[in-house]
Design a protein that fits this description.
Layout (H helix, E strand, L loop, with lengths): L19 H9 L2 E6 L7 E5 L3 E7 L3 E4 L2 E4 L3 H13 L7 E6 L2 E7 L5 E2 H4 L9 H14 L9 E4 L4 E4 L4 H5 L6 H8 L7 H13 L9 H20 L8
Antiparallel strand pairs: 1-2, 2-3, 3-7, 4-5, 6-7, 8-9, 9-10
Helix pairs in contact: 4-6, 4-8, 7-8
Length: about 240
């Protein structure tokens, strides 16, 4: 039935907090319809028989920015998913590599109840818990988020939760904006990182080299910078204005 949101699968999670069965549905579920996601061409909304919906981004997607065509490299979303799994933060919606209508790309879990932070304008940080904000700030610090504006994260007020999306080339390699999540964390004086989050960062530093990543220079550079910033967090134990 269209409109389901994978609820019947969310009780089965791996130790990392990610939805193991949702991943299987995204990879193997029978696709019954594909439609353009209005306002986000060529991104498509995919309906999976009996099991909910997903968002599909073709691998060759490009975006116009500053009068240039920029290849977004959608596999970077899978990198973000992998980083979030190791951290155990549960911030990045489950995504897989899949072919849809003859196009290769990423198929990501569609979040029925979450809305872009821009919908809530300056109230968004009041609708999530402080811990969610701190986790998101740590994540954005680690990846050196370059485009985390109010359209690139979602808020679920019912669960007081934030979801991080759009981890493409603009996010991981661009320098267009500061992360609103980092800025808000400092503004709310939440820059001191709790010990359990620091333990997660230490785990990431230990395991990041085990990830099966594309070995090209861009992704190798991203991994190197994540490791450097993880060491900085573990040393300083806080996020300050000087580190944004």
């Amino acid at each position: 039935m269209e409109g389901q949101s994978f609820e019947k699968y969310e009780v089965s999670k791996s130790e990392t907090g990610h939805d193991v069965d949702v991943e299987s549905v995204l990879e193997k579920g029978e696709i019954v319809s594909v439609e353009t996601f209005e306002g986000y061409f060529p991104i498509k909304r995919v309906t999976i028989k009996d099991d909910g919906r997903g968002i599909f981004r073709p691998t060759d997607i490009k975006r116009n920015t500053q009068n240039k065509k920029l290849e977004l490299r959608t596999e970077l979303e899978l990198l973000a998913v992998s980083l979030d799994k190791i951290l155990g933060f549960g911030l990045v919606p489950t995504a897989v590599s899949r072919e849809v209508n003859g196009e290769q790309g990423t198929l990501q879990k569609y979040l029925e109840k979450a809305k872009p932070a821009a919908v809530f304008w300056n109230r968004w940080s009041q609708l999530i818990s402080d811990l969610e904000l701190q986790k998101a700030a740590v994540f954005d610090f680690l990846i050196e988020a370059g485009d985390r504006n109010l359209g690139n994260f979602l808020i679920d007020p019912e669960r007081k939760k934030v979801w991080l999306i759009d981890h493409d080339k603009l996010m991981l390699l661009g320098k267009f904006y500061k992360s609103f999540l980092l800025t808000e964390t400092v503004a709310k004086k939440l820059g001191k990182i709790p010990s359990d989050l620091l333990e997660s960062v230490a785990k990431l530093l230990q395991k990041i080299d085990e990830l099966d990543l594309n070995a090209d220079l861009e992704i190798s550079g991203i991994r190197a910078r994540i490791k450097e910033r993880a060491r900085t967090l573990l040393r300083d134990k806080e996020i300050t204005r000087l580190t944004i």
